[in-house]
Structure formats: C-alpha cells, structure tokens
Design goal:
Order of helices and strands: EHHEHEHHHEHEHEHEHEHEHHEHHHEH
CATH architecture of the largest domain: 3-Layer(aba) Sandwich
Largest sheet: 7 strands, mixed
CATH class of the largest domain: Alpha Beta
Strand content: 5-15%
Shape: globular
Radius of gyration: 20 Å
Length: about 400
C-alpha cells in the first residue's frame, strides 16, 4: 500500500473571495475579544519549537501548535463550539456578540429570556464536547449524534458535561444529515461544524471561532514567517480557517499550504484530482484511526477557501499519524514532549516520512534547509485507550 498519494491543486488562484473575507483581521480580533472574555475558560496554547526534530529532518524550523492544552477539553474545538453557541444565543436575543461578553450570556437574566434550549451537534467527539461544554456554561442542554465505533472516552466526556449522546450505526456524514432532520422536527438549535447540511451561518461561526488559534500562532511567531503549513482536514473547517487567517495576514508571503487526510476519508484529495473546481464527496466505512478526520463530504464554505489557496492534497496511511504520535511523545534532545491524538499527529508523521523516505516529493514541495514548517496538533489523548495502544504498544 502507498503511504501517501499526492495531488497538485490545479485550481489554485490565490483570489480573495467572500469566504476569505470572513476571516479578515478585524473579524478575527472580534472573535478573539469574545474568547478573552471567557476568563479562566480561555487560555493561549503553546507553539512548540522542536529544534532537535527540525535538525533531524534537515530543515530550519519545525513548529507545533499544541492544542492538547486547550482548557479541559484538550482540543481546539472548544473555540468553535463556544463561539457558535454564543452567536446562536445572541441571534435569538437580537443582540450583537460584539456588544456583550461571556459572563452576560451565562447570566440568569439571559436564561429567563431564552427559556430552555437544546443545542444539537454531530461529532466524532471533540466538536460535540465543545457544544456540550458551551451549552452547559449557558445553562442549556446539548444532544450529540456520534458515528459507530466512537470511543467511550469521547462519549463519557460529553455526558460528563451534561450532554446527551446518541451513538448511531452509521458514519459521521449520516449523523450530520440526521441532526439536521431531527432539529427541524423538534425545534433544536443546530450547531454543526460543516455547512453541507443545515444553517450555513452557524457553520461559519464555528469556523470563525477557530480563527483564534491561528491568531495566537501569528502572534507567537512574531517576525518569523513559516514557509510551509500542513493542515489536516475532515470536513475542512479548521484547515480553511487557518488558511484564511494566514492569507489575510501574510498576503503575498503566505506559506505553501498542503492538506492531509486519511486514505479512507480523502474527500479533499478526491476533489483535488479533478480539474473542474468542484467539491466531491466519498462513501464507505471510513474506519481510519484518525477519527476526527473520517468525513466524506467537504464543508462547501471550507472548499471555496481551500480550493483557492492550497498548493496540494495528500491522502495518507494511518501508520503516518501513529508514527507522529510516537515521535511527539518521545522527543529528541531538549525538545518538549507533546501528547498528540490520532487526528493531531498526522502533520508530524507525514513530514518525518517524506523527508526521510521520499526526497523527490520533498523537493517538489520545496522543503530544504531553509524551510520553516508549521503543523497543528489539534487534540491530545481524547481517546486514552487508543493513545496507549498506539504509543505504548505499537498499534
């Protein structure tokens, strides 16, 4: 089996369109202002500089954004869920989120005006956890539909936050459709992290919530500008948000950008090999260990951004993310240890593989001794059993 499959993005234009403008610096500063109002519930996560690992790869720098330290949720998804749920509430109250803060939305006054709401999500774990967390903070309820095979840790995490979990016999994409259908029947507030179904405005809020992670990175990098950015994609919301944040900030100095997906759920790769610029979904079991990336339908908002700015698409074997988890957990020299989950470590494992085994691809991507690489470890050990099986026992 091929460890990687590569498709050059034939549709790249670098054009700024209405979707890209959703992540202007003025907008992401407004999002950051809301997150900062969360007090102790918000923290800036580390940008880790792995110098010894970079030396082993024969590149200049290797930066990892460590989202295992994002509050108690151990994943970047906290940012999107909190911002989207808060905006849903503001819409119902007919107020602008720029005019209030987190504590106002937690107040008894707001609860009395709203009554009882149910926020509904589809998730493999992290997004559902963020929606349940936000609903709980705002004295409301959450219900989360999850795909078959969901880890017990992820179910427990949502239920411990007061959420109701329904584990289906189907894929994540089925859960998206089912939540949208049931919400119309039952009057739930839908908070999906994709616009393939339901309210595109809510999916936009989720993506804008993620922009705080990118804004943190830009400020942590200071004067350093990455040459390459490798972004994992499920429905593509996180990847597109990071691309838009960086494109708006760096403009003509934007890094080269590559999208990484599991072989079994490579819908962006499938879209990228076509030359018509359209997004294509895929079907199948999608039983990758990268559970958070096991999605077969691109978020259409995300696709518009990714299509215009990504340089290429990679479909990846699960062994690469397993290796990435082990590499980050067992650092070289004085490098800092990073606890990275299955959907977080693919960038690290991918770079290690191509730099040491696929020099022709590394050359094609322009990776050399001057390269400054940025990856995002988007989650920690949110499935503790699987993390142990991979890192300790070589799964």
């Amino acid at each position: 089996m091929d460890y990687i499959k590569y498709a050059l993005n034939k549709n790249k234009t670098s054009k700024f369109i209405k979707e890209t403008e959703l992540f202007s610096e003025d907008q992401i500063k407004r999002v950051y202002k809301f997150h900062a109002s969360m007090g102790e519930a918000y923290n800036q996560t580390p940008l880790v500089n792995l110098d010894a690992f970079a030396h082993s790869l024969k590149v200049s720098k290797f930066f990892v954004k460590d989202e295992s330290k994002r509050g108690d949720l151990k994943a970047f998804k906290l940012l999107g869920g909190a911002y989207a749920v808060a905006n849903c509430i503001c819409k119902k109250l007919n107020i602008d989120i720029d005019d209030i803060d987190f504590n106002y939305l937690k107040s008894e006054h707001v609860k009395q005006k709203l009554g009882n709401l149910v926020f509904a999500a589809a998730s493999d774990g992290n997004h559902g956890k963020s929606v349940a967390w936000a609903a709980n903070e705002f004295n409301q309820k959450a219900i989360v539909y999850m795909p078959k095979g969901t880890a017990q840790d992820r179910i427990d995490a949502i239920e411990n936050l007061g959420g109701t979990v329904i584990v289906s016999d189907h894929t994540y994409d089925w859960c998206v459709r089912e939540v949208d259908r049931l919400a119309q029947e039952k009057g739930w507030e839908v908070v999906l992290d994709t616009a393939s179904k339901g309210d595109t405005q809510v999916a936009t809020w989720v993506m804008q919530g993620y922009s705080t992670m990118g804004w943190e990175v830009i400020n942590q990098l200071k004067s350093t500008i990455p040459t390459h950015m490798f972004l994992q994609a499920g429905v593509g919301s996180m990847a597109a948000a990071m691309i838009a944040v960086f494109a708006n900030h760096y403009k003509n100095n934007c890094p080269r950008i590559y999208i990484l997906e599991p072989h079994k759920a490579a819908c962006f790769y499938a879209s990228g090999i076509e030359s018509d610029g359209k997004a294509y979904g895929i079907k199948g079991e999608m039983d990758s260990i990268m559970a958070g990336l096991s999605c077969g339908v691109p978020n259409p908002i995300a696709w518009e951004i990714i299509r215009n700015f990504a340089d290429g698409f990679f479909s990846c074997d699960d062994i690469l993310t397993a290796n990435g988890m082990r590499i980050l957990a067992n650092p070289l020299g004085n490098d800092e240890k990073i606890v990275s989950g299955e959907s977080g470590a693919i960038g690290t494992g991918f770079i290690d593989y191509i730099m040491k085994n696929q020099p022709s691809i590394a050359d094609e991507l322009g990776l050399d001794t001057d390269s400054k690489i940025l990856v995002f470890s988007t989650e920690g050990d949110t499935d503790t059993q699987n993390y142990t099986d991979i890192v300790w026992y070589g799964k």
